[in-house]
Write a structure and sequence with these properties.
The chain is mainly beta. About 15% of the residues lie in helices and about 40% in strands.
Length: about 160
């Protein structure tokens, strides 16, 4: 069998892998007493023993270096009715926490009304292309409510088949 090299374009990656629905989270932390965070769809469980999770922030993120410097983070898992919250944290700049209900934890801000919060210490960071792979050791898990998750599919929030 002959293997043919194929140049994979970023637009093709986005289009094809957009067919894989993912949950939506807000990764949050504290920088010099200020809450910071960003929307993140690349979050998953890695190991039960030890308890590890991972997420993948872009190298272009201005928020990730601020969270990384603290050594810890919180992952806030969004519910199906939190599209506007996801959009708020997906944009650059501004005080994303203004007017939100949240509380500080030892690992970073925990947003009120989310499905769950996973509090972690940074275990490892690996460079991978234009992103980092951040492995976090889970220190505390909290379930806040029992409703459906917010999904991201084909570039949109929720499940769309267009």
């Amino acid at each position: 069998m002959t293997v043919v090299d194929h140049v994979v374009e970023a637009s093709e990656m986005r289009r094809v892998l957009g067919s894989f629905a993912s949950g939506v989270t807000i990764v949050s932390g504290t920088d010099d007493g200020e809450p910071v965070g960003f929307a993140c769809q690349s979050f998953t469980s890695v190991s039960l023993d030890p308890p590890l999770v991972l997420f993948c922030p872009a190298h272009t993120s201005s928020t990730w270096p601020r969270i990384r410097a603290s050594g810890s983070f919180s992952v806030n898992v969004l519910a199906e009715d939190q599209t506007e919250l996801a959009k708020r944290f997906a944009r650059r700049g501004g005080d994303k926490f203004a007017g939100l209900e949240w509380h500080e934890t030892a690992w970073g801000p925990s947003l009120d009304g989310v499905l769950a919060t996973v509090h972690c210490d940074i275990e490892q960071v690996h460079a991978a292309g234009d992103h980092d792979i951040v492995v976090g050791r889970v220190r505390k898990l909290v379930t806040h409510r029992e409703v459906g998750p917010l999904l991201f599919f084909r570039g949109q929030f929720g499940l769309t088949w267009d």
